[in-house]
Write a structure and sequence with these properties.
Blueprint (H helix, E strand, L loop, with lengths): L4 H15 L6 H7 L5 H21 L26 H21 L8 H12 L7 H18 L1
Helix pairs in contact: 2-3, 3-4, 3-6, 4-6, 5-6
Length: 151
């Protein structure tokens, strides 16, 4: 069987996609498709970690796709070494910095996070990609705000 050069190229591209771990989640797919840059991707990974750490500090269940129904799982006490007072205070400070950045990035004099927090929740926690250009724009603004807050 002879494959044309065009078919060989498409087959090779398909193999690369299958073996790429970025394609397993929404934020990774956006980076792979060059919808976001590396700094935005890093900010998204940071905020996803921060969201989970903040939930842990507050005694909430881990916010992930498998445990998104917060009423189904109760929080508990953890004996993890990360639960030191210094770590808890650091997570709280980082969370407040990130939230402040989102409030100010929304453009309404810091009164609400507007759609920024909602799209970050959908992409980073619920693993659902943006549905249109408006959501993609809000995601970029939110990721840029988080990137500035973490510096």
């Amino acid at each position: 069987m002879y494959l044309t050069a065009k078919r060989k190229g498409r087959l090779e591209e398909a193999r690369k996609r299958v073996s790429n771990p970025l394609l397993g989640y929404a934020l990774g797919r956006l980076l792979f498709q060059k919808e976001i840059d590396q700094n935005q991707y890093d900010a998204g990974m940071y905020f996803a970690w921060l969201w989970k750490a903040h939930a842990k500090v507050r005694g909430l269940p881990s916010p992930n796709v498998r445990a998104i129904d917060y009423g189904a799982i109760t929080g508990g006490y953890s004996t993890h070494p990360e639960d030191s007072e210094g770590w808890v205070m650091d997570v709280r400070r980082r969370w407040e910095d990130a939230q402040s950045a989102l409030y100010h990035a929304n453009g309404d004099q810091g009164r609400t996070t507007g759609p920024l927090r909602a799209i970050l929740l959908r992409v980073l926690v619920e693993d659902i990609g943006p549905q249109d250009k408006y959501e993609m724009g809000n995601l970029r603004v939110g990721l840029n705000a988080i990137n500035q807050a973490r510096m």
